[in-house]
Design brief:
heterodimer, A: mainly beta, three-stranded parallel beta sheet, 6 strands, B: mainly beta, Elongation Factor Tu (Ef-tu), domain 3, 1 helix, 11 strands, 45% strand
Chain lengths: 196, 162
């Protein structure tokens, strides 16, 4: 169920050399990235800019945030409902993670997707089962002048279980926020390594 | 490997009745439709949907509102703060009483409040007795109107060890 939920915003349509700073404006102006989708619908005139909308991410503003240099935000995890008397995990996972932005996505990194939701109404668990609603990794940026930024990691999701007791020891959970990603120096170092 | 799994399962569950039927599932098992309008009156049990294709009498369904929060829209650092969650996130399960063109009637009146304009969707939820997950189980991706939800009922779910 990774990345099946709310969708990440698109990279800016264009870019201008003049610095632009606004929390919310029309994405079609090309002055910034589109906000991530959330539980609140946004008026069409306010779809871009760095202001984060409810549980969605902000879009980031212009100054070299365009299609070639910026990257699209990633999609969040979906919602899983399972009602069962018994689950035999057999070492598997129920995953609803946010998607991660691909490494070296652009000069400006986009945000990772938020973790999803798992809701279980299950009486017994046999065998190992992992529940994972981690947020996705933010995008890297590797432009040397420090005007640009890495994308933020997606927030961790939520796991809910019916009844008062917690999970047995054979059921493990992972609810981590996505990492912001490595800094410029580390990415450059890795690129040099790859170049030999 | 299938035989080993079967034997292990039997050993683990020797004390419960043996179910006669096993279903293998993977991929997308739910069906989704946009709910455009709720029935009127104080006792709401009907839903007007884009299409009733794929829904039948006695189906278990999940009604879930995906959006509907209102936010601060000022051009300040407060932008996006939730002022009111509205009915976003409300959900409930029911079963289908009857199906007609463009609408469904449920066997239960709605327990929660919903706003049809807040991305309301109806999800058909399969019910199994004995079910084995043989491949990745997932949902149709959320497309802005429907999807993003995986839901199932079962007596026993076994994960096949891949």
């Amino acid at each position: 169920m990774n990345g099946k939920g709310f969708r990440g915003g698109n990279a800016s349509l264009n870019y201008y050399s003049a610095f632009f700073n606004s929390y919310a404006f029309n994405y079609n102006t090309g002055r910034g990235g589109e906000k991530g989708e959330s539980i609140a619908d946004i008026p069409s005139t306010l779809t871009a800019g760095r202001g984060a909308c409810a549980n969605g991410g902000g879009g980031g503003n212009d100054i070299y945030q365009n299609n070639s240099e910026g990257s699209d935000g990633e999609d969040g995890g979906g919602i899983v409902f399972v009602s069962a008397s018994a689950i035999i995990g057999n070492g598997n996972q129920i995953r609803s993670q946010g998607n991660s932005v691909a490494i070296a996505a652009g000069i400006d990194g986009a945000g990772g997707g938020g973790g999803g939701t798992i809701i279980l109404d299950v009486s017994s668990f046999t065998g190992n089962l992992q529940l994972n609603v981690n947020g996705g990794k933010g995008g890297d940026q590797f432009y040397i002048p420090q005007c640009h930024g890495n994308g933020g990691g997606g927030g961790g999701g939520v796991i809910l279980k019916s009844g008062l007791s917690g999970f047995p020891v054979n059921v493990t959970t992972s609810i981590l926020g996505g990492v912001k990603e490595m800094d410029n120096a580390m990415v450059l170092f890795m690129m040099r390594l790859m170049e030999g | 490997m299938a035989r080993i799994f079967y034997i292990l399962s039997c050993l683990a569950f020797w004390s419960i009745p043996v179910y006669s039927q096993n279903t293998n599932i993977s991929g997308v098992i739910n069906h989704y439709v946009k709910v455009n309008q709720l029935g009127g009156g104080n006792c709401i049990d009907s839903l007007y949907v884009t299409s009733t294709a794929g829904f039948s009498v006695d189906d278990t369904v999940l009604l879930i509102q995906m959006k509907g929060a209102t936010i601060d829209v000022s051009n300040t650092s407060n932008f996006g703060s939730v002022l009111n969650h509205g009915n976003s996130g409300n959900y409930e399960f029911s079963t289908v009483k009857s199906v007609s063109t463009g609408s469904l009637v449920l066997n239960t009146k709605l327990l929660n409040s919903y706003t049809a304009t807040g991305s309301l969707q109806l999800v058909r939820v399969p019910s199994y007795t004995n079910v084995t997950v043989t491949g990745t189980l997932t949902a149709a991706p959320w497309n802005g109107q429907i999807g993003g939800v995986l839901a199932l009922f079962a007596s026993r779910i076994s994960y096949f060890k891949c």
